[in-house]
Amino acid sequence: MVNNVSLKNKGEIFTLQKGKVCVGRCKLYRTNKHSAILGNFIVYKRYRNKGYGSVLLSSVIKTRLNIMLWVDIDNPVAYRLYTKHGFKQIGMGSDKLAILFLKQKM
Question: What is the pTM of this model?
Fold first, then answer.
């Protein structure tokens, strides 16, 4: 089950729980009415490669916001997760960080 807590127009924190155990979390930082930056996305090690990342990311995408994030290109598992969910690379930042963006239909 994914829970989210609003942060008064500043964003939301999403947590993914399996029973009473938190298996993953992330934060969506609102930049304006239609856009946000996704950060602090993590699925805890013992729960990885079981589909939990997709469940958590799908819940974030349901916010219908345009979402931007940075991902280390040396982390191919995370990069594939984001691109599988429709994120497109729009540039490269410093320190081998790919800039990915998901444009939502408004």
Answer: 0.90
